[in-house]
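Encode chain A's predicted structure.
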Amino acid sequence: MNILLFGATGMVGDGALRWLIASPKVTRVVAVSRKPLSLHHPKLGSVVETDMFHIQRLDTLQDFDACFLCLGAGSVGMNAEDYRHLTYELTLSVVQQLLARNPRMVFEYISGEGTDANSWQRWARVKAETEAAFFKLGFRGAFGLRSGFIQPKRGATGRVRSVRWMCAFTAPIYPFLQKTFGRWVTSTDLLATAMLQLAVTGSDKKVFNTSELNALTGHASYSLFAWCSTLA
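Encoded structure for chain A:
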């Protein structure tokens, strides 16, 4: 399977990319990012686009089986207009540019646990509006992945220092967190596994929360024995 990945310089995209290039089910991954990647692999191709609203190398971004969009902006400290521009408008701009060249492509969007058109939280309403918009565009399959806390794996790191510290702190107890709070906790490995599963098999369901994504992988929870073994 040939995968197009946006957002590989962020923690989620970086972790997903590392899992995808290790998977025997994936033939090729092309990562589109605003700056060059530090990761290199025979399966990996890279395209640098400084302005995602006006992609210049569209001729190289065609005939893909699936697109995983891990782009995103935090809403904290951002005014409503800018957040909508970098969430709703950016996502729709990217997918509209890609669709004509990839009519049989499956599109998957990292949304967020709590996404809801009727939420009191602005980010949740904007994410829901974004999902509703790309569902109507005519992809072979389109999915909103409403993940909660995501533990990075395979050496993936975030750009935000506080996020890096939090992930480093939770890494030793991640199996316990996943078992106890699996409704809200996943990892970049599990998320990428679920994404690839959806790209291959499809689903009538359009949105998936964290526990549903974990269930797609067959690892909805860790056993207490598995957690204890990590501490031995």
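Residues 80-99 form the longest helix (20 residues).
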